[in-house]
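Q: I'm writing up a methods section and want to include an example of the input and output format. Could you take the sequence below and give the corresponding predicted structure tokens, formatted cleanly so I can copy it straight into the document?
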Amino acid sequence: MSKLNRAILRTIVPATKLQKFTDGGGLYLLVTPAGAKSWRLDYRFAGERRSKTLGYRIF
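A: Here is the clean output for your methods example:
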């Protein structure tokens, strides 16, 4: 799978469901049906899966 780049990010439009676009290493872009985009990072701590939001933008 290729890494996300600026050209790919510009073509992403909201759909009726949440969309997840992965970049590798647990990093992904989450796009909501309302058009909000947020960068998230999945990781494990003490055996539990967790997620952190790194930043978001509402369009």
